[in-house]
């Protein structure tokens, strides 16, 4: 039986981060993962992360995965792939299936970072080929470069459903609707807004009645539900689709921890182990980090992993109490900032009616996916001035500040509180570099020149679709609701390494449309 200082189960963001931190303190960790590629969900995530520099903000998930793997290699972390951990025992022994053989390992400590699995909702036809989880769709698109389907309905409006819907559009799929039984959109408003302006409708307080098709999906029927989530007769709507994506939440994969005898608790976020602030479970030497200890974003999982790695180093005598406290303090600040704002754990399931600044929440955004024209002016990032200037349609308190760092001239201010709404400083002249537009993880920033002197103006917007429009091309401008507002002409398309594949598309529209035109579509 082989023995290691630390055995890590799961090579996702939490597991790799813990192994790296432990290795930096002198431990020799080994990481087992059942997949053929390490990195967990990171390599499916082609969008830019939220947060601050400490949270890898404005960096795409797969690049963060590459960086983690490189750091693990530099620190001598051993990663064994295609290795399924079959059992975890209180004596900190694990059995691992590698190929057709079962191997036994003993660890002085164990870190379980097994992540979570997708939930499923049973409805008539839910086993029909073509009904897939949103994670499966991401795997097909972003790892194997295969379109999941041509016409897709998304069930679920949390961040996963919203992000995957956008990626489906990028892959060339038509997303016919986003449907959710809840009365309000569950994910970030900026995620909803960027698919709403592409013309994708939202059907809240609706869910699937049935999926039709004998050998494959050929249609789906939805209907409104009442407060008890019972179908309301006569509200049915039918869509011809070939794919239904399901994004109705995740459940922690905590079975191994239960097997090891760890105390467990049932929470609204799933069945999870009881852990202290370091990720230590009730069984000495067994720790947990990431989604297995409670569903959060990958940014949080990486920080939790670092904290657990340092705690394990302390548990085994490689790091003294002062060193652990110092590491904990630096990481807890970064983790705490991610747990603030409208989407903080304390606000889950609640309707937040005002921002931290006391501004009324956009109910249109929560119910239809976009901020209405008569609501948008109330937010501090939406201003008017002569010449080109940023318009920031960031309307919810979420932990994110790359725009502030991106502006070399200081036109944009968020302040010390990372969840504050961004403010445009009109006494500072914008030079139109576009770095704020490219850096915004929510694609919520636009550069606007309301009047170029000829009855027209320009709007520079983020654009992440191929093929790119060409200069001089004429098409139509879509509003926040995805409907045509006017004709538009492409003035320029800018791409730069610093923009990290977020192209800046500038369109020419009538002056009175510059505060409404938010997407470009070929005629």
UniProtKB/TrEMBL annotation:
Keywords from the named record: Oxidoreductase
Pfam families: Pyr_redox_2
Database matches in SUPFAM superfamilies: 4Fe-4S ferredoxins (SSF54862), FAD/NAD(P)-binding domain (SSF51905)
Residue ranges of the TM segments: none
Molecular-function GO term, any one: oxidoreductase activity
InterPro entries registered for this protein in UniProt: 4Fe4S_Fe-S-bd, FAD/NAD-bd_sf, FAD/NAD-binding_dom, Metab_Enz_Cyan_OpOx_G3PDH
PANTHER family attached to this UniProt entry: ANAEROBIC GLYCEROL-3-PHOSPHATE DEHYDROGENASE SUBUNIT B (PTHR42949:SF3)
Protein name, per record: NAD(P)-binding protein
Origin organism lineage: Bacteria, Bacillati, Bacillota, Clostridia, Lachnospirales
């Amino acid at each position: 039986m082989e023995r290691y200082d630390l055995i890590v189960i799961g090579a996702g963001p939490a597991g790799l981060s813990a192994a790296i931190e432990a290795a930096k303190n002198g431990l020799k960790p080994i990481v087992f993962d059942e997949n053929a590629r390490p990195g967990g969900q990171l390599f499916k995530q082609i969008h830019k992360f939220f947060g601050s520099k400490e949270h890898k903000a404005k960096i795409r998930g797969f690049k963060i995965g590459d960086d983690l793997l490189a750091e693990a290699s530099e620190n001598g972390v051993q990663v064994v792939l295609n290795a399924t951990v079959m059992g975890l025992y209180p004596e900190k022994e694990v059995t691992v299936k590698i190929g057709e053989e079962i191997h036994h390992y003993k660890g002085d400590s164990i870190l379980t970072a097994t992540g979570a699995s997708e939930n499923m909702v049973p409805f008539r036809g839910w086993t029909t080929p073509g009904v897939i989880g949103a994670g499966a769709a991401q795997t097909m698109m972003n790892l194997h470069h295969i379109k999941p389907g041509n016409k897709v309905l998304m069930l679920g409006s949390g961040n996963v459903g919203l992000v995957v819907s956008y990626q489906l559009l990028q892959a060339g799929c038509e997303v016919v609707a986003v449907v959710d039984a809840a009365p309000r959109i569950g994910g970030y408003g900026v995620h909803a807004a960027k698919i709403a302006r592409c013309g994708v409708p939202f059907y809240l307080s609706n869910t699937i009645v049935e999926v039709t098709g004998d050998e494959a999906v050929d249609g789906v029927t939805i209907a409104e539900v009442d407060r008890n989530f019972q179908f309301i007769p006569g509200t049915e709507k039918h869509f011809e689709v070939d794919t239904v994506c399901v994004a109705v939440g995740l459940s922690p994969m905590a079975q191994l921890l239960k097997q090891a005898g760890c105390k467990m608790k049932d929470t609204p976020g799933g069945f999870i182990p009881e852990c202290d602030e370091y990720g230590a479970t009730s069984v000495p030497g067994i720790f947990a980090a990431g989604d297995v200890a409670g569903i959060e974003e990958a940014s949080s999982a990486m920080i939790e992993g670092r904290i657990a790695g340092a705690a394990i180093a302390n548990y085994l005598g490689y790091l003294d109490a002062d060193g652990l406290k110092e590491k904990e303090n630096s990481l807890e600040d970064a983790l705490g900032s991610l747990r603030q704002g409208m989407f903080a754990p304390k606000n889950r399931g609640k309707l937040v009616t005002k921002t931290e600044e006391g501004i009324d929440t956009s109910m249109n955004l929560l119910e239809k996916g976009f901020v209405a024209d008569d609501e948008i002016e109330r937010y501090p990032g939406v201003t008017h001035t002569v010449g080109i200037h940023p318009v920031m349609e960031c309307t919810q308190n979420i932990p994110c500040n790359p725009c502030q760092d991106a502006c070399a001239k200081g036109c944009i201010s968020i302040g010390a509180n990372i969840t504050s709404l961004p403010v445009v400083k009109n006494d500072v002249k914008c030079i139109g570099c576009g770095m704020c537009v490219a850096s915004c993880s929510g694609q919520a920033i636009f550069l606007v020149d309301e009047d170029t002197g000829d009855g027209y103006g320009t709007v520079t917007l983020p654009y992440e679709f191929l093929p790119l429009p060409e200069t001089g091309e004429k098409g139509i401008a879509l509003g926040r609701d995805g409907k045509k507002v006017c004709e538009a002409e492409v003035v320029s398309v800018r791409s730069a390494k610093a923009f990290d594949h977020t192209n800046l598309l500038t369109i020419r529209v009538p002056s009175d449309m510059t505060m409404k035109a938010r997407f470009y579509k070929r005629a």
